Amino acid sequence: MSRVVVVSDTHLPARAKDLPAPVWAAVEAADVVVHAGDWCDAATVLALRERSGRLVGVAGNNDGADVRAHLDEFATFTLDGVRFGVVHETGDKAGRERRCDSAYAQDLDVLLFGHSHIPWDTTTPRGLRLLNPGSPTDRRRQPTGTWMEFTVRDGTLSPVELHRVPPRPVSRGRAARQR
């Protein structure tokens, strides 16, 4: 059995100074950590590599040469017979299943992706599972930041859990300034 944590679009240090503590705890407890691009600095690549049992990641559209020196734009791996692919972008949500079926369904069981910062969990007509964890640091139109976890056992994914980053408490000084 393998425990997998999936994150994307961390945009460090521009959107946050660090990953939220619950994400780091999940990373450290996982067997495999997947990052689907837009790290934005090589320090994050190195920190995740150091703190995870196994790291699989790809570069995204906001990643520069420092990140790309460590990562390609597409990665694959297999866990207990389940074939995974990782890519940053899959295009607009309209037509996503059709495009991904055409590009990936023959070689993969699950495609992990990012870019939109919006969680996504669907299965294409050919049976390819599409998963986007959202972003733990740049929630965009979501109520909170997010990441995903699941386990792989006997060639099957457990139900995918979408975790929400707990809101940070507002300090008294900050609350007083907002009034």
Automatic annotation (TrEMBL):
Keyword Transcription regulation assigned: no
UniProt keyword annotations, A-Z: Metal-binding
Ranges where the Calcineurin-like phosphoesterase domain occurs: 3-154
TM helices/strands, residue ranges: none
GO MF terms held by the record: hydrolase activity; metal ion binding
EC number: 3.1.4.-
Keyword flag Metal-binding: yes
Cofactor: a divalent metal cation
InterPro entries named in the record: Calcineurin-like_PHP_lpxH (IPR024654), Metallo-depent_PP-like (IPR029052), Phosphodiesterase_MJ0936/Vps29 (IPR000979)
Chain spans, region Disordered: 160-179
Family per similarity comment: Belongs to the metallophosphoesterase superfamily. YfcE family.
PANTHER family recorded: VACUOLAR SORTING PROTEIN VPS29 (PTHR11124)
NCBIfam families in the record: yfcE
The name this protein goes by in its record: Phosphoesterase
Source organism of this protein record: Kineococcus aurantiacus
